[in-house]
Write a structure and sequence with these properties.
Layout lengths: L7 E5 L2 E4 L4 H9 L18 H4 L2 H16 L8 E5 L3 H12 L3 E6 L7 E3 L11 E4 L8 E5 L2 E2 L3 H12 L3 E11 L4 H7 L10 E7 L3 H19 L1
Parallel strand pairs: 2-10, 3-4, 3-7, 7-9, 8-9, 9-10
Antiparallel strand pairs: 1-2, 4-6, 5-6
Pathway: Purine metabolism; AMP biosynthesis via salvage pathway; AMP from adenine: step 1/1
Catalytic activity: AMP + diphosphate = 5-phospho-alpha-D-ribose 1-diphosphate + adenine
Keywords: Cytoplasm, Glycosyltransferase, Purine salvage, Transferase
């Protein structure tokens, strides 16, 4: 079976992953996110994208697979890629180069001046809020939004709101994995009067945590957000 023969599993409506039997999914599961014992000291590193980027052969396979996936969409495929700061850049930038389309950075709002389009005034100074440079994305552009993984959903929700503000069509949300136990996709679906209920989401692999692991991961994320506001 070729790595480009994408056998997909629909985990939830409009959310697809590679089937666990797909060769690329098997290789990702074998090489990424291998730690199973989360503690406060190491839970931040369990989903570190460097476990992919430090394996150049596997990293190349991922980019080549994704290039093939979006090229086959033809005229319905993305015209722009939005990479979410900061780890969305790692997958998004080389994929944009491979596809020959612009790569647009969605950066932390509070770092940038008024020449950037914010996600929304009420969220301008929250650490999960994002902005893009004015005129980076023309109206009705078809965008692919890229990040490393979906956890609580806050960061991806900010990027989706940005795409809506600039009147872009979201072809798909792309991440390496989602962590089902953190409920991020559910939050995305239910937010903003269910505006993103049917937005296509593609995660290469699907990852589950035990209730204890999920609780510790959420505690770490919440403590990070609290520190970022100080």
């Amino acid at each position: 079976m070729s790595q480009y023969d994408a056998i997909l599993t629909e985990r939830h409506p409009h959310h697809f992953t590679l089937a666990d039997t797909h060769p690329l999914a098997k290789e990702l599961h074998a090489n990424i996110f291998g730690e199973s014992d989360l503690t406060h000291a190491n839970c931040a590193h369990v989903y570190d994208i460097s476990s992919l980027t430090e394996k150049p052969a596997l990293f190349r396979k991922v980019i080549e697979f994704l290039k093939c996936r979006y090229e086959t969409m033809g005229d319905t495929g993305p015209t722009h890629i939005i990479g979410v700061e900061s780890r969305g850049y790692i997958i998004g930038a080389p994929l944009a180069v491979a596809l020959g389309i612009p790569f647009v950075t969605a950066r932390v709002t509070k770092r940038f001046p008024s020449s950037f389009v914010p996600e929304g005034d009420d969220l301008k100074y929250l650490p999960m809020s994002r902005s893009i440079r004015n005129d980076s994305i023309p109206p009705r552009a078809r965008v692919l939004i890229v990040d490393d993984f979906i956890g609580t959903g806050s960061t991806m929700l900010a990027a989706l709101r940005l795409a809506d503000i600039v009147a872009a069509q979201v072809v798909e949300v792309l991440t390496v994995c989602d962590v089902a136990s953190l409920g991020g996709i559910k939050i995305i679906r239910e937010s903003d009067d269910e505006m993103f209920k049917e937005t296509p989401i593609f995660t290469l692999i699907h990852f589950k945590l035990s209730p204890r692991e999920a609780e510790e991961q959420l505690e770490f994320v919440n403590s990070y957000i609290t520190r970022s506001r100080l």
